[in-house]
Write a structure and sequence with these properties.
Oligomer: single chain
Radius of gyration: 20 Å
Helix content: 10-25%
Distance between the termini: 39 Å
Number of domains: 2
Strand content: 25-35%
Shape: globular
Number of helices: 7
CATH superfamily of the largest domain: Ribonuclease Z/Hydroxyacylglutathione hydrolase-like
Length: 333
């Protein structure tokens, strides 16, 4: 069994690739950053130079003003120092990637965030066999088993049809979740105009620029309440209970998140229609992925690390928790 490669160094603020003199998803500004995707707990402004997919660089430009970067296509190999690097799809959000590093006969895969469910807004996760597998564990407890996404969307549409004089207000994170909800609604036959909060407009336009068709979207601002009856309205989670939502026509408040599996979270947010829809792998998908890539060692970060490390240990698989800082589900941020 190969030893943990000394050329990869996990630190609380990121993973340092020593022979490339570069950091993966650093939480602090670095001269050279390899970024998996555009969420704020993985991407930030202030780096000297960024390597990421073209989509992620565009997202970083929109959100953080990042301008200096090298755009990469999936499966394109480049070298920094003696390290061969390529990005493969992670299935998390638009542009999300796993980073595959090869050096001294060893292969390390850093997943960032990922999911294994179908998502019309981004390419599907690609499993890559490796020596070291760095996996997230946002939903790394056996209680987290996500239901079928289409069935959750059908519940949303059913609530809308059952209450035509109301609207359904869906809380969904601005990058990834909102667009996935909209696209899945379209795929399930809902082609009516969808109203969106102003905070979602630029990101939805960026998705459209990259070929993700969202159908007819209308700004919710300035629209009379009566005109939004019988419609879906998508907004950031923070807007569900603020002054902005008070003018809506008796909204059925929904929230799309893997955390809606926890009833207390739904009650805390006054969510009438909890939708268990996540952009992260659930427990079964995390464990199945580790089996599929068959690493010599698994490094676990971003969430419920101890349970996944214990699962590995019970199967005589080497594993360790990285305990990195600043890694959280942005739906909660």
């Amino acid at each position: 069994m190969p030893p943990t490669p000394h050329w990869i160094e996990p630190h609380p603020t990121g993973i340092y690739v020593r022979p490339a003199d570069a950091w993966i998803d650093p939480a602090q500004p670095r001269d050279r950053a390899l970024v998996t995707h555009g969420h704020a707990d993985h991407a930030r402004g202030g780096h000297g130079h960024v390597w990421a997919t073209r989509e992620t660089l565009a997202i970083m430009g929109l959100r953080y003003g990042t301008a200096d970067g090298t755009p990469l296509a999936y499966d394109e190999t480049f070298k920094l120092g003696d390290v061969a690097i390529r990005y493969v799809p992670a299935g998390h959000v638009l542009g999300s990637a796993q980073i595959v590093l090869e050096h001294a006969g060893e292969r390390v895969v850093v997943t960032g965030d990922y999911k294994r469910r179908s998502d019309p807004t981004c390419p599907a996760f690609v499993p890559v066999p490796c020596d070291i597998f760095v996996t997230e564990a946002t939903f790394g407890l056996p209680v987290f088993r996500h239901p079928d996404t289409d069935e959750e969307i059908d519940r949303l549409v059913g609530a809308l049809h059952a209450h035509p004089d109301r609207c359904v207000l869906v809380g969904a994170y601005a990058l990834g979740k909102a667009q996935r909800i909209i696209c899945t609604l379209r795929a399930r036959g809902h082609h009516d105009p969808i109203y969106i909060h102003g905070a979602l407009e630029k990101m939805c336009a960026l998705y459209e620029d990259f070929g993700v068709a969202l159908g007819e979207l209308r700004p919710a601002a300035g629209v009379a309440a009566k005109d939004m009856r019988g419609h879906v309205i998508v907004a950031p989670p923070s807007a569900l209970n603020d002054r902005w939502s008070r003018r809506l026509p008796d909204p059925i408040t929904a929230m799309a998140s893997g955390w809606m599996r926890v009833r207390q979270r739904a009650r805390q947010r006054n969510v009438e229609l909890p939708l268990i829809i996540s952009d992260h792998a659930d427990w079964d998908e995390l464990t199945a992925t580790i089996r599929e890539v068959a690493p010599s060692e698994t490094w676990v970060t971003h969430g419920r690390e101890e349970a996944l490390v214990h699962w590995c240990a019970m199967r005589q698989m080497r594993a360790r928790a990285l305990a990195m800082v600043g890694r959280e589900d942005e739906d909660d941020a």
